[in-house]
Amino acid sequence: MFTVDFSIDLHCHPTYKPMGKTFKHTKYVQSDDPNDETSLWNYNPPSITDKILNELFSVTKFSQANLTAAYYGRVWVLSITLGSIEKWFFKNKLGTGFLANIVDNFAAGIGLAGIKGIEITNDYFWDLQNEIDFVIGNDETVIELDGNFCQYKIVNTFAELQEVIQQNIDSIEDANRNGGKTVKPITIAIILSIEGLHTLNCGLETACDPNTVRENAIALKNLPFKPWFVTFSHHFYNELCGQARSLSGTIAKLCDQSKGLGQSFTDLGREVLEILLNEEDGKRIFIDIKHLSPIARVEYMKRRQELDPENKIIPIIISHGACTGLPDMGSTRSEYPELGNNFCSDEINFYDHEIIEMVKTNGIFGLQLDERRVANKEAIRKTKNSFFKNKIMHYRSELLWNQIQYIAELLDNNGFPAWQHVAIGSDYDGIVDPLNSFWTIEQYENLKSHLERHAFNYLQNEINRLQLAQNRNITADQIVNNVFQMNAWDFLKRWY
Fold first, then answer.
1. What residue segments make up the domains of the chain, in order of their start?
2. pLDDT in tens, 12-48
3. Going by DSSP bridges, is the β-strand pair 148-154/7-12 parallel, antiparallel, or unpaired?
4. Which among 9, 50, 340, 373 could bridge 46 via Cys, Cβ 3.0 to 4.6 Å?
Protein backbone atom coordinates (compact mmCIF):
# COMPACT_ATOMS: atom_id res chain seq x y z
CA MET A 1 0.00 0.00 0.00
CA PHE A 2 1.20 3.50 -0.81
CA THR A 3 0.73 6.52 1.44
CA VAL A 4 -0.75 8.43 -1.51
CA ASP A 5 -3.48 7.02 -3.71
CA PHE A 6 -2.91 6.87 -7.49
CA SER A 7 -4.09 4.80 -10.44
CA ILE A 8 -2.49 2.84 -13.28
CA ASP A 9 -3.94 2.43 -16.78
CA LEU A 10 -2.40 -0.39 -18.84
CA HIS A 11 -3.80 0.66 -22.21
CA CYS A 12 -4.78 4.08 -23.56
CA HIS A 13 -4.26 6.26 -26.63
CA PRO A 14 -3.45 9.88 -25.73
CA THR A 15 -1.41 10.33 -28.93
CA TYR A 16 -4.06 9.72 -31.61
CA LYS A 17 -5.87 13.06 -31.50
CA PRO A 18 -2.95 15.46 -30.86
CA MET A 19 -0.63 13.77 -33.34
CA GLY A 20 -3.35 13.77 -35.99
CA LYS A 21 -3.71 17.51 -35.51
CA THR A 22 0.01 18.05 -36.28
CA PHE A 23 -0.65 17.34 -39.97
CA LYS A 24 -2.04 20.85 -40.40
CA HIS A 25 0.86 22.39 -38.44
CA THR A 26 4.37 20.93 -38.20
CA LYS A 27 4.06 17.21 -38.84
CA TYR A 28 4.81 14.91 -35.91
CA VAL A 29 6.04 17.73 -33.63
CA GLN A 30 4.32 18.11 -30.27
CA SER A 31 3.73 21.63 -28.98
CA ASP A 32 5.32 22.80 -25.73
CA ASP A 33 2.08 24.66 -24.95
CA PRO A 34 -0.30 22.42 -22.96
CA ASN A 35 -3.25 24.38 -24.36
CA ASP A 36 -2.31 23.61 -27.96
CA GLU A 37 -4.31 20.89 -29.73
CA THR A 38 -1.08 19.10 -30.65
CA SER A 39 -0.01 18.65 -27.00
CA LEU A 40 -0.52 15.45 -25.02
CA TRP A 41 -1.62 17.76 -22.18
CA ASN A 42 -4.38 19.46 -24.20
CA TYR A 43 -7.44 19.41 -21.96
CA ASN A 44 -10.76 18.92 -23.74
CA PRO A 45 -13.38 17.61 -21.29
CA PRO A 46 -16.81 16.65 -22.66
CA SER A 47 -19.39 19.39 -23.09
CA ILE A 48 -23.12 18.78 -22.64
CA THR A 49 -23.38 18.36 -26.42
CA ASP A 50 -20.50 15.86 -26.40
CA LYS A 51 -22.22 13.79 -23.73
CA ILE A 52 -25.51 13.78 -25.62
CA LEU A 53 -23.77 12.71 -28.85
CA ASN A 54 -22.03 9.93 -26.98
CA GLU A 55 -25.21 8.66 -25.34
CA LEU A 56 -27.24 8.79 -28.55
CA PHE A 57 -24.69 7.71 -31.17
CA SER A 58 -21.69 6.30 -29.19
CA VAL A 59 -19.52 9.04 -30.72
CA THR A 60 -16.65 10.22 -28.49
CA LYS A 61 -15.70 13.73 -29.60
CA PHE A 62 -13.82 14.74 -26.45
CA SER A 63 -10.36 13.86 -25.20
CA GLN A 64 -10.39 10.96 -22.73
CA ALA A 65 -6.76 10.23 -21.90
CA ASN A 66 -4.90 13.54 -22.20
CA LEU A 67 -2.26 14.02 -19.54
CA THR A 68 -4.04 16.90 -17.84
CA ALA A 69 -7.00 14.60 -17.22
CA ALA A 70 -4.48 12.05 -15.91
CA TYR A 71 -3.07 14.68 -13.55
CA TYR A 72 -6.52 15.65 -12.27
CA GLY A 73 -7.51 11.99 -11.86
CA ARG A 74 -4.18 11.12 -10.23
CA VAL A 75 -3.45 8.50 -12.89
CA TRP A 76 0.31 8.47 -12.47
CA VAL A 77 1.18 5.48 -14.66
CA LEU A 78 0.01 5.17 -18.26
CA SER A 79 0.90 2.49 -20.75
CA ILE A 80 0.64 4.65 -23.85
CA THR A 81 -0.21 2.50 -26.82
CA LEU A 82 1.40 3.51 -30.09
CA GLY A 83 0.68 2.25 -33.58
CA SER A 84 -0.27 3.83 -36.85
CA ILE A 85 -4.02 4.06 -37.31
CA GLU A 86 -4.80 1.54 -40.04
CA LYS A 87 -5.71 3.26 -43.28
CA TRP A 88 -8.69 0.95 -43.78
CA PHE A 89 -10.59 2.94 -41.17
CA PHE A 90 -10.68 5.81 -43.62
CA LYS A 91 -10.34 4.04 -46.97
CA ASN A 92 -13.78 2.59 -46.48
CA LYS A 93 -17.12 2.33 -48.27
CA LEU A 94 -17.57 6.11 -48.11
CA GLY A 95 -14.50 6.58 -50.28
CA THR A 96 -11.68 9.02 -49.61
CA GLY A 97 -13.14 12.31 -50.81
CA PHE A 98 -13.60 15.51 -48.83
CA LEU A 99 -17.15 14.75 -47.67
CA ALA A 100 -16.21 11.20 -46.71
CA ASN A 101 -13.30 12.51 -44.64
CA ILE A 102 -15.60 14.97 -42.86
CA VAL A 103 -17.79 12.06 -41.81
CA ASP A 104 -14.76 10.01 -40.75
CA ASN A 105 -13.36 12.91 -38.75
CA PHE A 106 -16.67 13.35 -36.95
CA ALA A 107 -16.11 9.89 -35.45
CA ALA A 108 -12.31 9.92 -35.05
CA GLY A 109 -11.55 13.55 -34.19
CA ILE A 110 -7.98 13.54 -35.52
CA GLY A 111 -8.47 16.27 -38.13
CA LEU A 112 -8.99 16.20 -41.89
CA ALA A 113 -5.27 16.61 -42.61
CA GLY A 114 -4.50 13.73 -40.26
CA ILE A 115 -7.01 11.47 -42.01
CA LYS A 116 -5.57 12.34 -45.41
CA GLY A 117 -2.08 11.56 -44.16
CA ILE A 118 -3.20 8.14 -42.95
CA GLU A 119 -5.00 7.40 -46.23
CA ILE A 120 -1.89 7.98 -48.33
CA THR A 121 0.70 6.38 -46.05
CA ASN A 122 2.74 3.56 -47.54
CA ASP A 123 5.11 2.91 -44.62
CA TYR A 124 3.56 2.09 -41.25
CA PHE A 125 6.97 1.57 -39.63
CA TRP A 126 8.04 5.08 -40.57
CA ASP A 127 4.76 6.35 -39.09
CA LEU A 128 5.49 4.43 -35.88
CA GLN A 129 8.94 5.97 -35.57
CA ASN A 130 7.43 9.43 -36.02
CA GLU A 131 4.86 8.66 -33.31
CA ILE A 132 7.63 7.58 -30.94
CA ASP A 133 9.54 10.79 -31.72
CA PHE A 134 6.34 12.77 -31.10
CA VAL A 135 6.22 11.41 -27.55
CA ILE A 136 9.96 11.52 -26.90
CA GLY A 137 10.14 15.16 -28.03
CA ASN A 138 8.54 16.52 -24.85
CA ASP A 139 9.80 13.90 -22.42
CA GLU A 140 10.52 15.60 -19.06
CA THR A 141 9.32 19.00 -20.36
CA VAL A 142 7.88 20.78 -17.33
CA ILE A 143 4.53 22.56 -17.71
CA GLU A 144 2.34 24.43 -15.23
CA LEU A 145 -1.22 23.42 -14.29
CA ASP A 146 -3.22 25.40 -11.73
CA GLY A 147 -0.04 26.77 -10.21
CA ASN A 148 1.60 23.34 -9.89
CA PHE A 149 4.36 21.89 -12.05
CA CYS A 150 3.92 18.67 -14.06
CA GLN A 151 5.79 16.60 -16.60
CA TYR A 152 5.78 13.16 -18.12
CA LYS A 153 8.70 10.78 -18.23
CA ILE A 154 9.14 7.65 -20.31
CA VAL A 155 10.42 4.88 -18.05
CA ASN A 156 12.28 1.82 -19.28
CA THR A 157 12.51 -0.24 -16.10
CA PHE A 158 10.58 -0.86 -12.92
CA ALA A 159 13.35 0.84 -10.96
CA GLU A 160 12.82 4.03 -12.96
CA LEU A 161 9.07 3.76 -12.43
CA GLN A 162 9.53 3.27 -8.70
CA GLU A 163 11.71 6.39 -8.52
CA VAL A 164 9.06 8.49 -10.32
CA ILE A 165 6.26 7.35 -7.99
CA GLN A 166 8.33 7.92 -4.86
CA GLN A 167 9.18 11.47 -6.01
CA ASN A 168 5.48 12.14 -6.58
CA ILE A 169 4.59 10.84 -3.13
CA ASP A 170 7.30 13.00 -1.54
CA SER A 171 6.07 16.03 -3.48
CA ILE A 172 2.44 15.52 -2.41
CA GLU A 173 3.40 15.00 1.22
CA ASP A 174 5.56 18.14 1.15
CA ALA A 175 2.67 20.08 -0.37
CA ASN A 176 0.30 18.86 2.32
CA ARG A 177 2.68 20.22 4.94
CA ASN A 178 3.31 23.52 3.14
CA GLY A 179 0.03 25.01 1.99
CA GLY A 180 -0.99 22.67 -0.82
CA LYS A 181 1.33 23.75 -3.65
CA THR A 182 3.81 21.24 -5.06
CA VAL A 183 7.39 22.47 -5.48
CA LYS A 184 8.78 19.55 -7.46
CA PRO A 185 6.83 18.51 -10.56
CA ILE A 186 4.27 15.71 -10.43
CA THR A 187 5.41 13.23 -13.06
CA ILE A 188 3.21 10.99 -15.19
CA ALA A 189 5.20 7.80 -15.83
CA ILE A 190 4.84 6.64 -19.43
CA ILE A 191 5.38 3.03 -20.53
CA LEU A 192 5.36 2.44 -24.27
CA SER A 193 3.50 -0.41 -25.94
CA ILE A 194 2.27 -1.03 -29.50
CA GLU A 195 -1.14 -2.05 -30.79
CA GLY A 196 -0.96 -3.92 -34.07
CA LEU A 197 2.11 -5.29 -35.85
CA HIS A 198 0.96 -3.82 -39.14
CA THR A 199 3.44 -1.27 -37.78
CA LEU A 200 6.21 -3.56 -39.11
CA ASN A 201 4.95 -2.35 -42.52
CA CYS A 202 2.52 -4.99 -43.60
CA GLY A 203 -1.20 -5.07 -44.29
CA LEU A 204 -1.04 -2.34 -46.94
CA GLU A 205 -2.44 -2.35 -50.50
CA THR A 206 0.33 -4.57 -51.86
CA ALA A 207 1.88 -7.66 -50.32
CA CYS A 208 4.60 -6.92 -47.77
CA ASP A 209 8.29 -7.65 -48.22
CA PRO A 210 8.99 -10.44 -45.67
CA ASN A 211 12.63 -9.38 -45.27
CA THR A 212 11.58 -5.83 -44.42
CA VAL A 213 9.06 -7.09 -41.87
CA ARG A 214 11.66 -9.31 -40.20
CA GLU A 215 14.20 -6.46 -40.17
CA ASN A 216 11.64 -4.10 -38.64
CA ALA A 217 10.82 -6.66 -35.93
CA ILE A 218 14.50 -6.80 -34.99
CA ALA A 219 14.72 -2.99 -35.14
CA LEU A 220 11.73 -2.79 -32.79
CA LYS A 221 13.71 -4.68 -30.14
CA ASN A 222 16.60 -2.24 -30.48
CA LEU A 223 14.74 1.05 -30.19
CA PRO A 224 15.99 3.35 -27.39
CA PHE A 225 12.50 3.11 -25.88
CA LYS A 226 11.62 -0.50 -26.63
CA PRO A 227 7.91 -1.32 -26.32
CA TRP A 228 7.12 -3.46 -23.29
CA PHE A 229 4.47 -5.50 -25.10
CA VAL A 230 2.66 -5.51 -28.45
CA THR A 231 -0.65 -6.74 -29.73
CA PHE A 232 0.06 -8.88 -32.76
CA SER A 233 -3.05 -7.84 -34.65
CA HIS A 234 -5.45 -4.93 -34.58
CA HIS A 235 -8.64 -4.32 -36.54
CA PHE A 236 -7.60 -5.40 -40.05
CA TYR A 237 -5.62 -8.27 -41.58
CA ASN A 238 -1.88 -7.58 -41.43
CA GLU A 239 -0.41 -10.66 -43.20
CA LEU A 240 0.90 -11.96 -39.85
CA CYS A 241 -2.17 -13.45 -38.18
CA GLY A 242 -5.93 -13.44 -38.06
CA GLN A 243 -7.80 -10.82 -36.07
CA ALA A 244 -11.03 -10.98 -34.07
CA ARG A 245 -14.03 -9.03 -35.31
CA SER A 246 -13.86 -5.82 -33.31
CA LEU A 247 -16.05 -3.17 -34.95
CA SER A 248 -19.76 -2.69 -34.47
CA GLY A 249 -22.57 -0.36 -35.40
CA THR A 250 -22.15 2.16 -38.24
CA ILE A 251 -18.37 1.85 -38.37
CA ALA A 252 -18.68 -1.91 -38.92
CA LYS A 253 -20.94 -1.26 -41.90
CA LEU A 254 -18.43 1.15 -43.41
CA CYS A 255 -15.22 -0.84 -42.80
CA ASP A 256 -14.58 -4.32 -44.16
CA GLN A 257 -12.87 -6.53 -41.56
CA SER A 258 -13.63 -9.83 -43.30
CA LYS A 259 -10.15 -10.62 -44.58
CA GLY A 260 -8.22 -12.56 -41.93
CA LEU A 261 -11.14 -13.26 -39.63
CA GLY A 262 -10.94 -16.75 -38.14
CA GLN A 263 -7.36 -17.33 -39.31
CA SER A 264 -4.34 -18.21 -37.19
CA PHE A 265 -0.72 -17.14 -37.66
CA THR A 266 0.86 -17.07 -41.09
CA ASP A 267 4.36 -18.48 -41.59
CA LEU A 268 5.74 -14.94 -41.57
CA GLY A 269 3.77 -14.21 -38.41
CA ARG A 270 5.30 -17.23 -36.70
CA GLU A 271 8.78 -15.98 -37.64
CA VAL A 272 8.01 -12.55 -36.17
CA LEU A 273 6.64 -14.19 -33.03
CA GLU A 274 9.91 -16.08 -32.53
CA ILE A 275 11.93 -12.89 -33.06
CA LEU A 276 9.97 -10.97 -30.43
CA LEU A 277 9.94 -13.75 -27.83
CA ASN A 278 13.61 -14.63 -28.33
CA GLU A 279 15.55 -13.71 -25.18
CA GLU A 280 19.04 -14.40 -26.50
CA ASP A 281 19.60 -10.69 -27.12
CA GLY A 282 18.13 -9.82 -23.71
CA LYS A 283 15.34 -7.78 -25.35
CA ARG A 284 12.25 -9.98 -25.36
CA ILE A 285 9.00 -8.19 -26.19
CA PHE A 286 5.88 -9.67 -24.60
CA ILE A 287 2.70 -10.39 -26.56
CA ASP A 288 -0.66 -8.90 -25.64
CA ILE A 289 -3.31 -11.36 -26.89
CA LYS A 290 -6.04 -8.75 -27.39
CA HIS A 291 -7.33 -8.59 -30.99
CA LEU A 292 -5.99 -12.04 -31.94
CA SER A 293 -8.64 -14.29 -33.42
CA PRO A 294 -9.68 -17.07 -31.02
CA ILE A 295 -7.85 -19.67 -33.09
CA ALA A 296 -4.71 -17.52 -33.13
CA ARG A 297 -4.97 -17.19 -29.34
CA VAL A 298 -5.03 -20.99 -29.10
CA GLU A 299 -1.89 -21.27 -31.23
CA TYR A 300 -0.11 -18.54 -29.30
CA MET A 301 -0.88 -20.11 -25.93
CA LYS A 302 0.42 -23.46 -27.16
CA ARG A 303 3.66 -21.90 -28.39
CA ARG A 304 4.03 -19.86 -25.19
CA GLN A 305 3.65 -23.05 -23.14
CA GLU A 306 6.34 -24.77 -25.21
CA LEU A 307 8.75 -21.89 -24.54
CA ASP A 308 7.76 -21.53 -20.89
CA PRO A 309 6.47 -24.87 -19.54
CA GLU A 310 6.95 -23.78 -15.92
CA ASN A 311 5.20 -20.41 -16.44
CA LYS A 312 8.14 -18.36 -15.24
CA ILE A 313 9.31 -16.20 -18.15
CA ILE A 314 6.40 -15.23 -20.45
CA PRO A 315 3.14 -13.96 -18.90
CA ILE A 316 -0.17 -13.85 -20.75
CA ILE A 317 -1.16 -10.21 -21.12
CA ILE A 318 -4.66 -8.94 -21.88
CA SER A 319 -4.10 -5.18 -21.80
CA HIS A 320 -7.72 -4.19 -22.46
CA GLY A 321 -10.51 -6.73 -22.57
CA ALA A 322 -13.66 -8.16 -21.05
CA CYS A 323 -15.21 -11.57 -20.40
CA THR A 324 -17.52 -13.33 -22.86
CA GLY A 325 -19.13 -15.21 -19.98
CA LEU A 326 -18.56 -18.46 -21.91
CA PRO A 327 -16.25 -21.34 -20.98
CA ASP A 328 -14.54 -21.61 -24.37
CA MET A 329 -14.78 -20.95 -28.09
CA GLY A 330 -17.81 -22.70 -29.50
CA SER A 331 -19.79 -22.67 -26.26
CA THR A 332 -23.18 -21.00 -26.24
CA ARG A 333 -24.05 -21.27 -22.53
CA SER A 334 -22.39 -19.65 -19.57
CA GLU A 335 -21.42 -21.80 -16.58
CA TYR A 336 -22.14 -18.72 -14.45
CA PRO A 337 -25.34 -17.49 -16.12
CA GLU A 338 -26.43 -14.97 -13.50
CA LEU A 339 -23.63 -12.66 -14.64
CA GLY A 340 -22.30 -14.33 -17.79
CA ASN A 341 -25.57 -14.05 -19.71
CA ASN A 342 -25.30 -10.27 -19.49
CA PHE A 343 -21.90 -10.06 -21.17
CA CYS A 344 -20.93 -9.35 -24.76
CA SER A 345 -20.06 -12.79 -26.14
CA ASP A 346 -18.26 -11.49 -29.25
CA GLU A 347 -14.98 -13.24 -29.98
CA ILE A 348 -13.03 -10.04 -29.27
CA ASN A 349 -13.73 -10.78 -25.58
CA PHE A 350 -12.19 -13.63 -23.59
CA TYR A 351 -13.28 -17.11 -22.57
CA ASP A 352 -13.09 -18.62 -19.08
CA HIS A 353 -10.26 -21.00 -19.95
CA GLU A 354 -8.15 -18.10 -21.30
CA ILE A 355 -8.61 -16.16 -18.07
CA ILE A 356 -7.52 -19.20 -16.05
CA GLU A 357 -4.45 -19.67 -18.26
CA MET A 358 -3.62 -15.98 -17.79
CA VAL A 359 -3.58 -16.45 -14.02
CA LYS A 360 -1.41 -19.58 -14.23
CA THR A 361 1.29 -17.48 -15.95
CA ASN A 362 1.13 -14.66 -13.39
CA GLY A 363 -0.39 -12.53 -16.11
CA ILE A 364 -2.69 -9.53 -16.04
CA PHE A 365 -6.19 -8.69 -17.34
CA GLY A 366 -6.79 -4.99 -17.96
CA LEU A 367 -10.53 -4.32 -18.04
CA GLN A 368 -11.65 -2.12 -20.91
CA LEU A 369 -13.99 0.74 -20.01
CA ASP A 370 -16.21 0.41 -23.09
CA GLU A 371 -19.90 -0.22 -22.45
CA ARG A 372 -20.19 -2.25 -25.65
CA ARG A 373 -17.52 -4.67 -24.42
CA VAL A 374 -18.40 -5.14 -20.75
CA ALA A 375 -22.11 -5.80 -21.35
CA ASN A 376 -24.42 -6.95 -24.14
CA LYS A 377 -27.07 -4.72 -25.69
CA GLU A 378 -29.88 -6.18 -23.62
CA ALA A 379 -28.01 -5.64 -20.34
CA ILE A 380 -27.25 -2.04 -21.30
CA ARG A 381 -30.87 -1.49 -22.31
CA LYS A 382 -32.06 -2.77 -18.93
CA THR A 383 -29.61 -0.64 -16.94
CA LYS A 384 -31.55 1.85 -14.86
CA ASN A 385 -31.52 5.53 -15.76
CA SER A 386 -31.84 8.59 -13.59
CA PHE A 387 -31.71 12.37 -13.70
CA PHE A 388 -29.29 12.30 -10.77
CA LYS A 389 -25.59 11.97 -11.59
CA ASN A 390 -24.78 9.93 -8.49
CA LYS A 391 -27.40 7.32 -9.36
CA ILE A 392 -26.26 7.15 -12.99
CA MET A 393 -22.73 6.47 -11.73
CA HIS A 394 -24.03 3.74 -9.46
CA TYR A 395 -25.97 1.98 -12.23
CA ARG A 396 -23.26 2.28 -14.89
CA SER A 397 -20.37 1.30 -12.63
CA GLU A 398 -22.23 -1.93 -11.89
CA LEU A 399 -21.61 -3.00 -15.50
CA LEU A 400 -17.89 -2.98 -14.75
CA TRP A 401 -18.32 -4.47 -11.29
CA ASN A 402 -20.11 -7.46 -12.84
CA GLN A 403 -16.95 -8.22 -14.83
CA ILE A 404 -14.78 -7.98 -11.70
CA GLN A 405 -17.16 -10.20 -9.71
CA TYR A 406 -17.38 -12.74 -12.55
CA ILE A 407 -13.60 -13.12 -12.77
CA ALA A 408 -13.34 -13.41 -8.97
CA GLU A 409 -15.92 -16.21 -8.80
CA LEU A 410 -14.44 -18.00 -11.82
CA LEU A 411 -10.97 -17.99 -10.27
CA ASP A 412 -12.21 -18.92 -6.79
CA ASN A 413 -14.15 -21.84 -8.24
CA ASN A 414 -10.93 -23.08 -9.84
CA GLY A 415 -8.80 -22.66 -6.73
CA PHE A 416 -6.99 -19.43 -7.61
CA PRO A 417 -6.66 -16.03 -5.90
CA ALA A 418 -9.74 -14.05 -6.89
CA TRP A 419 -8.64 -10.43 -6.71
CA GLN A 420 -4.98 -10.30 -7.82
CA HIS A 421 -4.95 -10.33 -11.62
CA VAL A 422 -7.48 -7.71 -12.73
CA ALA A 423 -6.45 -4.14 -13.53
CA ILE A 424 -7.64 -1.25 -15.69
CA GLY A 425 -6.81 -0.97 -19.39
CA SER A 426 -9.36 1.63 -20.41
CA ASP A 427 -8.62 1.95 -24.14
CA TYR A 428 -9.69 5.58 -23.74
CA ASP A 429 -9.26 7.67 -26.90
CA GLY A 430 -9.25 4.40 -28.85
CA ILE A 431 -12.75 4.94 -30.34
CA VAL A 432 -14.50 3.55 -27.27
CA ASP A 433 -17.92 4.26 -25.84
CA PRO A 434 -17.17 4.96 -22.15
CA LEU A 435 -19.33 4.02 -19.22
CA ASN A 436 -21.73 6.95 -19.00
CA SER A 437 -20.62 9.57 -16.43
CA PHE A 438 -17.10 8.10 -16.38
CA TRP A 439 -16.15 9.92 -19.54
CA THR A 440 -12.37 10.27 -19.11
CA ILE A 441 -9.55 9.13 -16.86
CA GLU A 442 -10.22 12.25 -14.79
CA GLN A 443 -13.27 10.43 -13.37
CA TYR A 444 -11.32 7.43 -12.04
CA GLU A 445 -11.73 8.61 -8.45
CA ASN A 446 -15.52 8.63 -8.90
CA LEU A 447 -15.42 5.21 -10.54
CA LYS A 448 -13.36 3.80 -7.69
CA SER A 449 -15.76 5.08 -5.04
CA HIS A 450 -18.79 3.57 -6.78
CA LEU A 451 -17.05 0.24 -7.38
CA GLU A 452 -16.19 0.17 -3.68
CA ARG A 453 -19.92 0.37 -2.88
CA HIS A 454 -20.63 -2.59 -5.14
CA ALA A 455 -17.73 -4.53 -3.60
CA PHE A 456 -18.96 -3.75 -0.08
CA ASN A 457 -22.49 -4.91 -0.90
CA TYR A 458 -21.14 -8.08 -2.48
CA LEU A 459 -18.95 -8.99 0.49
CA GLN A 460 -21.71 -8.35 3.00
CA ASN A 461 -24.61 -10.36 1.65
CA GLU A 462 -25.64 -13.79 0.45
CA ILE A 463 -24.62 -13.25 -3.20
CA ASN A 464 -21.00 -13.71 -2.11
CA ARG A 465 -20.30 -17.19 -3.48
CA LEU A 466 -16.56 -17.24 -2.81
CA GLN A 467 -15.36 -20.41 -1.09
CA LEU A 468 -11.66 -19.88 -0.40
CA ALA A 469 -10.82 -18.03 2.80
CA GLN A 470 -8.07 -16.01 1.10
CA ASN A 471 -10.67 -14.68 -1.35
CA ARG A 472 -13.38 -13.97 1.22
CA ASN A 473 -11.12 -12.25 3.75
CA ILE A 474 -10.71 -8.94 1.98
CA THR A 475 -12.25 -5.50 2.31
CA ALA A 476 -14.05 -3.53 -0.39
CA ASP A 477 -11.41 -0.81 -0.48
CA GLN A 478 -8.67 -3.46 -0.89
CA ILE A 479 -10.47 -4.90 -3.91
CA VAL A 480 -10.72 -1.52 -5.59
CA ASN A 481 -7.14 -0.61 -4.71
CA ASN A 482 -6.01 -3.89 -6.24
CA VAL A 483 -7.87 -3.22 -9.47
CA PHE A 484 -6.71 0.36 -9.95
CA GLN A 485 -3.22 0.15 -8.51
CA MET A 486 -1.67 -2.85 -6.79
CA ASN A 487 -2.33 -5.64 -9.30
CA ALA A 488 -0.76 -3.66 -12.13
CA TRP A 489 2.03 -2.48 -9.82
CA ASP A 490 2.88 -6.04 -8.76
CA PHE A 491 2.77 -7.14 -12.40
CA LEU A 492 5.15 -4.35 -13.36
CA LYS A 493 7.45 -5.25 -10.49
CA ARG A 494 7.55 -8.88 -11.64
CA TRP A 495 7.90 -8.37 -15.39
CA TYR A 496 9.01 -4.83 -16.32
1. 1-84+121-193
2. 999 999 998 898 777 789 999 999 999 999 999 988 9
3. unpaired
4. 50
